[in-house]
Amino acid sequence: MALPFQVAAHDDAVANEKIRLLERQVQALEERLRRLEGGAAAVVQPAPVLPEAEQPQVAQAATDAPPADPAEVVASNVVTQAIADGDIKESHQLLTRDALLSNDFPGSWPMFGTDLRMKVGGYIKTDFVADFDGTRDPTQFLMRTIPARGQADYGDDGYTDFFAKETRFNLDVRRVVPGSVPLRGFIEGDFFSDGEQFRLRHAYVSAGDYIIGKTWTTLSFLESLPFMIDFAAGDALFGGRAAQVRYQTELNDQWKMSLAVEDMPFLGIENAFDLPGKATKKMPVLAARADYHWDSGLLLLGASASELNWDGGSAGPSDSALQYALIVGGRQNIGSRTFVTWNATYTDGAGENIMAFAGTGANAVLGPDGKLDTIPALAVVLGGGYDWTSTLSSNASFAYGWLDTPDTRDPESLKRGGIAHLNLVWRPAKHISTGAELMWGKTRLQNDAAGDAARMQFMAKFEF
User: Fold this and answer.
1) Residue 265: predicted pLDDT
2) What is the pLDDT of residue 22?
3) What pLDDT was estimated at residue 86?
4) Which segments of the protein form a coiled coil according to its record (predicted)?
5) How many CB atoms lie within 10 A of CB 221?
6) Going by DSSP bridges, is the β-strand pair 414-426/392-403 parallel, antiparallel, or unpaired?
């Protein structure tokens, strides 16, 4: 039988422990609020969680989201990346187990009769382009669309164009049930295609630490890009979207690792001598990535490898060659108003995965002897942003791409080039933004002919 003073001492110890846990929760929330207000890309630890029976009673959130299991939340090392809204071109994030445990799913509603919640998202965007030098694509500013001296469209007059084809919609469905594997299904499309037909961008399922379906490739380091109005903002960015199976997990509160098997989206073999046969896929792309976060930034490291193949059938030559890529990227906040970004890629045999060279046969050239000659490529993207006020900001980016091409390549093929962007964006309200962007670019072909071009783009955007 416990004596009265022993019971009192026990009760005091329990009360003191509750107070200490509550103080730690408040400190963690205050730190998170401070970092979010400062716009820092911060690593935010989850607040300590009291045992369920000892938690203070609070009103249920209006979203009526199902609570996460406190034991799982405490056990996880969730990295919350607080990149300020509007500071990144692509806001969609690939979430797996621990990141899906959060109740923060704003705008969602229950799918009655199930344990699922659903959210509709996307944006409506209208653009006006004033092109000054007759580039070939009115909807995006790419190195390969700039005419060079000697080409038939070199010296064409400028033009104007209105379009809304970047408008996109997505459906996000999640299941977070205590004791069960977190699930997420995500599908998104836009109208950025010929004839403004609906185009699939993402269609995947997350189950625990696995992602299965079509989405950004593992080496698409979108966090290393600032926000650009031009659709082709990362002209020298390595990546794209492909069907894949990816394992993605938090190693601790700073490191995240991803391993994937992906479809090869770009075959990219130039058949300069018109030999019989075709480019084929014989093995998927194997990719690995590591993300390292610190208080004010992040570092991204990645590598991939696969095999290029030319199948000549019964009448032509057949050959194969290794393709690989090495990538480093990152982001660093400087104070509360400024950030810088960087991304560098070296690849041999995978140049078509660099946006500037997509569709140009930049992986390899099939020589007259029927052998594949892979093309080394280098790409660098540097960027940054500055918040003039709470609603007015500027972003800048410079992208450079270079191919070490063999002499047998088509003389009018793109060899290297650079693109620069500078914008001013105004966000007068939470869901509305408008702005203007100046672009300039220069390209050089295999035959050393050069061309340059400039344009202005204006946009209005409503996000939901």
Assistant:
1) 87
2) 62
3) 55
4) 12-39
5) 30
6) antiparallel
Q: What are 117-147's pLDDT values in tens digits?
A: 999 999 999 999 999 999 999 999 999 999 9
- Here the tokens at position 399 are 């992208």
> How far, in Å, CA of 446 to CA of 444, rounded?
7
Amino acid identity at 373: D
Tally the residues of the chain.
464
Kindly list the structural domains of the chain, giving each domain's residue range(s) and its CATH number in brackets, ordered by start. 127-162+209-463 (2.40.160.10)
- The DSSP letter of residue 222 is G
Amino acid identity of residue 119, one-letter, is K
Which helix (DSSP H) or strand (DSSP E) does residue 261 occupy?
Answer: strand 255-262
* Per-residue pLDDT tens digits for 243-293: 999 999 999 999 999 999 999 989 999 998 999 999 999 999 999 999 999
Strand partners, 117: 110, 174
Find tokens 């019989």 and name the residue: 276
CB atoms within 10 A of CB 14: 11
Q: Count other C-beta atoms under 10 Å from residue 346's C-beta.
A: 16
| Helix, strand, or coil (residue 224) | helix
**Could you tell me which residue, 94 or 21, shows the higher pLDDT?**
94
Q: What separation in angstroms does the CA of 373 have from each of 323, 362, 411, 443? A: 11, 11, 16, 23
Q: Within 10 Å of residue 278's Cβ, how many Cβ atoms?
A: 13
Are 135 and 141 contacting, i.e. CB atoms less than 8 angstroms apart?
Answer: yes
Q: How many helices (H) and strands (E) does the chain have?
A: 3, 24
- Comparing C-alpha atoms, which of 200, 211, 207 is closest to residue 287? 211
Whole-angstrom distance, CA of residue 381 vs CA of residue 375? 20
Burial, 197: exposed, middle or buried (Cβ in 10 Å; 0-12, 13-18, 19+)?
exposed
Question: What's the token pair of residue 192?
Answer: 């950025």
Phi and psi torsions of 196, nearest 5°:
55, 40
Query: Nearest 5°: CA angle at 392, between 400 and 394?
Result: 10
Q: What is the DSSP letter of 235?
A: T
Spatial separation of the C-alpha atoms in residues 183 and 318, rounded to whole Å: 44
Residue type, 163: F
Here the tokens at position 271 are 């058949």
Q: Are 211 and 199 in contact (CB under 8 A)?
A: no
Judged by phi (left if over 0) then psi (alpha if -120 to 50, else beta), residue 189 lies in: beta
For residues 401-407, average pLDDT: 93
Let me know: does 349 contact 254? Beta carbons within 8 Å. no
The DSSP H or E segment spanning 206 is strand 199-207
Q: Is residue 336 within 8 Å of 38, Cβ to Cβ?
A: yes
Q: C-alpha 315: how far from its chain's center?
A: 43
Query: What is the distance in angstroms between the CA of the first residue and the CA of the last residue of the chain?
Result: 62
User: H or E stretch including 213?
Assistant: strand 210-216
Question: Whole-structure pTM over 0.85, yes or no?
Answer: no
